[in-house]
Amino acid sequence: MVDIRSQYQRLKPEIDAGIAEVLDSSVFIKGPALKAFRDELAAYLSVPYVMPCANGTDALQIALMALKLQPGDEVITSNFTFISTVEVLVLLGLKPVLADVDPLTFNIDPEKLKQAITPRTRAIVPVHLFGQPADMYQIQKIAGEHGLFIIEDNAQSLGSVYTGPDGTSAMTGTIGNIGTTSFFPTKPLACYGDGGALFTTDPHLAEIIEMIINHGAKVKYHHEMIGVNSRLDTIQAAILRVNLRNLDDFIERRRTVAEYYHKRLGSNPAIRIPQVASFGTHVYHQYTILLDPKIRDSVRKQLKEKGIPSMVYYPVPLSIQKAFAFAGYHEGDFPVTEHLCKSVLSLPIHTEMDVEQLDTICSTLLNIINHE
Ligand SMILES: *Cc1c(COP(=O)(O)O)cnc(C)c1O
Questions:
Q1: Is it true that the peptide bond before 314 is cis, omega within 30 degrees of 0?
Q2: Which of 43, 98, 253, 302 is deepest in the core (most CB within 10 A)?
Q3: What value, to the nearest 5°, has the Cα angle with vertex 193 and ends 188 and 195?
Q4: Cα(33) to centroid(ligand 1), Å
Q5: Residue whose CA lies nearest to ligand 1 atom number 3
Q6: Quick count: other Cβ atoms within 10 Å of Cβ 330?
Q7: How large is the average pLDDT for residues 121-145?
Q8: What is the pLDDT of residues 82-105, one digit of tens each?
Q9: Residue 310, ligand 1, Cβ within 6 A
Q10: Ligand 1 atom at minimum distance from 84 CA
Q11: pLDDT for res 343
Q12: Domain 4-99+107-245 carries which CATH code?
């Protein structure tokens, strides 16, 4: 699905030099590379405050802690996403409320979001899924009307741009009160281990987040609040500096792959290729097609037999995960998410793909589908 090794081989001199510099300095916590990365990412995103942390799940937890949400407060998020958001909500004693998604973009459906609001709702966590933004204008409008915080989960879409109806553009993750991301090795901006970050334009929130990340202390050993230990390693920051310099090139390479897939697969009536919302740009963290649920698993199996990897992100809606049974949702509550879980198939997409590989994948896939 991804080829991290080839990407490393291509960037080896830069990456190795970055790591060697940290080893030479032997400053493994904080240190100059961390500060440089933070400043460079802030400049890339045009956001004043970037706070690196240990991973994307921590970033979500720290964001919720910084907004001082109280046990029992309700937070609305998408039913079609990775488990992290719901996990940290439950750990903090908050109540996750799920909303169904838009069938074209797979992102939270603003109408469904509106219907999920109750007097206890305090925040919304839109997820920019697979590489493109959620409908931030509608989400901000709803948040404004009901006095809700917005935390953008941008783990999959760093580098994508959202343009509002008034024509102003912003990078995803910099629009809500707080944005979070993950630098897990397969994400658009990746390190060689775990990493994450939070973004905000609010100096007060930035200060609180910084404190929470550092055990609730501004001054060492003087703890003003309960925090966590969640740091980005300096070695990872050095790797991230190289990958950030290459991020626009990575995105271009992924878009080239997506264009190839569009051309080869787009005219087949059995395949629905990814749809890009008019208000956003797509960074193609995933290239996810929809197939008839009757053939999806069989197609995947045949691809595997021919040596072609594919993945189902995500096979089970959060609403019917065993770990979440206490929430009391049932099959049938979220028709769009449930249908997507039975229809989606993500094809290999990464920065190192060549036309030969793409041709093999497309020919094989089309051949299988034409025989189904
Ligand atoms: C990867 C991911 C996370 C979690 O990031 P980690 O760094 O693995 O903790 C959260 N949300 C979404 C949407 C993700 O894709």
A1: yes
A2: 98
A3: 65
A4: 23
A5: 56
A6: 8
A7: 98
A8: 999 899 999 999 999 999 999 999
A9: no
A10: 10
A11: 98
A12: 3.40.640.10
